[in-house]
Amino acid sequence: MIFRPPADRRVSLALQGGGAHGAFTWGVLDALLEDGRVEFDGISGTSAGAMNAVVFADGMVRGGREGAREALAKFWDAVGNAVPFDLSMGGDAENGGLAPGIRMMLYWARQFSPQQLNPFDINPLRDIISAQIDFERLREKSALKLFIAATNANTGRLRLFTTREMSVQALLASGCLPSIHHTIEIDGEPYWDGAYSANPAVFPLLYDCAASNIMLVLLSPMLHGATPRTAEEIRARSLDLAFSTNFLREMRSIAHAREYASRSVLPLGRLERRLKRVHFHLVEADELLSQLAAETRLTTSLAFLHMLRDQGRDHAAAWLSRHYTKLGKRSSLNVRDAFY
């Protein structure tokens, strides 16, 4: 009888940013944790994806799978309760509509800098993650390999913060929208949102992780809707493209490199062997997220966040039902067709 090693059920996760739409990723992670069959190796995350990644890792250290589920729920519920009541009134909360008070804040954010509008650097997100995440324990005890993306505001270069470098400032840097938040300084260097340089970075999951499966959890639609016409639509689409171009370019490069390695007649090196044996998987919700206005990324009502969480859970459950048996054996995503 021929011995066949058991399939590798370990997964490394690539979690895209997308503001409040990150609650969809919360649902995906919650379903994977509840299912219990998937093991986790590394997580690369940007902005909201970084928040999910670090909260997930801290919860795992605190209490395993159930600890991670509880930590994610606590974090997103805190986000949903962080907006002052008078600002949250009046919007279509369940469908992601912004309240008039928040719309006014966004208008003034286009006219003035964060230093002018918010001189005391009030940031509810800082308070939430400072209160919930034990960064010292995370750095010392987490077995997960974390790669949190931020962008150097002066050079445009990607900076990846690893598990041993994790801090409140590193996490805030990954989600620092410069029109809304004060620039984050770390070791004398200024950082903005990681989505400007990688949303998310996939290469560390190839180079620094052992899992043979990489799962992409995407929040930016692969195909956008109608061509934008109004000034506001053009502004929103421009930001969408700026936040996804580097990721699309990286995935195209990976697809090209995998194809090149598969055609090689020469002995393969370490990278080529890794490219050939890694399997890619995708959980996304194009049909839902492509219908939501760009402004819904800033909607933090609990009703809206919970709707996205439930959608994420449903999509992850559907993926597990259709593709779980492929883990460690073959890809459920054709990278060339999707990104080439």
From TrEMBL:
Mention one GO molecular function: hydrolase activity
> Motif location (GXSXG)?
45-49
Q: Which PROSITE patterns match?
A: PNPLA (PS51635)
A single GO BP annotation from the record? lipid catabolic process
Extract the InterPro entries matched here.
Acyl_Trfase/lysoPLipase, NTE, PNPLA_dom
Task: Give TM regions.
Answer: none
Please give the PANTHER family that the UniProt record associates with this protein.
Answer: NEUROPATHY TARGET ESTERASE/SWISS CHEESE D.MELANOGASTER, SLR0060 PROTEIN
Name used for this protein in its record? Patatin-like phospholipase family protein
Provide the species name. Answer: Thauera phenolivorans
